[in-house]
# Entry
Amino acid sequence: MQFDQIIDRKPTYSFKWEKYKGKDILPLWVADTEFKCAQPILDALHARTEHGLMGYTLPAHHEAANQAVVSWLARQYGWEISADWIVWTPGVVPAFNVACKAYCQPGDKVMIQTPNYPPLLAAPKINGLERVDIGTVQEEGRWTIDFEELEKQAADPAVKLFVVCNPMNPVGSVLSAHELQRITDICVKNNVTLCSDEIHCDLILDENAKHIPAGKVPEFSGKVVTLMAASKTFNVAGLGASFAIIEDPKTRAEFNTAAKGIVPWVTVLALEATEAAFTLCDQWHGELLTYLRGNLDYLTNEIERIDGLELLPPQATFLAWIDASGLGVDNPQKYFEDKGVGPSPGIDFGDKNFIRINFGCPRSVLEEAIARIKA
Ligand SMILES: Cc1ncc(COP(=O)(O)O)c(C=O)c1O
# Structure
């Protein structure tokens, strides 16, 4: 099985593996996977490097990559977009920072659901804005947004932007149609721009959940920016390729103006990789989801049997947000590292009682991690 293959990333300066270099700690933190890219992506990259010239390519001119995005969104989400709505960005992190600049004035407020991905938590302050946290609550066996808090905070006229992460990182929930409608209604009523980070949307594990892009919500007359990428699913994050979908021309122009002179063009290799991922890798994608579902089942069963740990299984992503408060230790991160397992520290996302385990790895690596935790 291709996803069982262990590939040594230590000699490649991998961010994930550099952290515990020289230590016997299994790195299960930063959100890339241990899986080799699908062959059509590697072939596309080879073909492009064989051509031998790496000069400028304006992403909007790369018709094939733009068409690949259009057809992927139609196939996966029934979302019919025009290629003109696509704004390529060399990462989702720059994109939500650009959204902060584009739709807010210094001193304005930005709502962020918490816990959340650390660079997202950091974005308002970087841009001279005030962050307003919207908490996450447990409801019917999954995490969701604290809607009461969202209603209350959105009514503050200083709030101009809501950056939501859907599927949510780290909690792994997929917003339902009803929840998404509620969010958009609240944004429209209060004139708040919605920026939806959907980088994990092609990783739906719960077969009853369905991802709905924020920009697809019918009757959404407000400003909405949907951020996506092939990067997490197809393990090409190191190439830096993502895109914003912005239907409204004025909202798009504001985004482009804020990015001007700061955000570079997406590289030609990133465009080629995205094109191949979205046109030639459907079978690989299906197999990946099957493998990740197997990893998640294994992890859920094991965590259930370990005293002091609790996991609400994520509906999407390859990330498990584990409540370690039952261990009764001050520093859960250190507890796991002492056992030879390196998760992401919950404190970075906003809750020190949790850790986040990346299960996008060969099953045998996960088994080794569980054995170490149990030892
Ligand atoms: C929610 C979320 N947004 C953005 C990113 C990173 O985006 P990029 O590498 O495209 O800047 C991550 C990576 O973990 C993420 O989890």
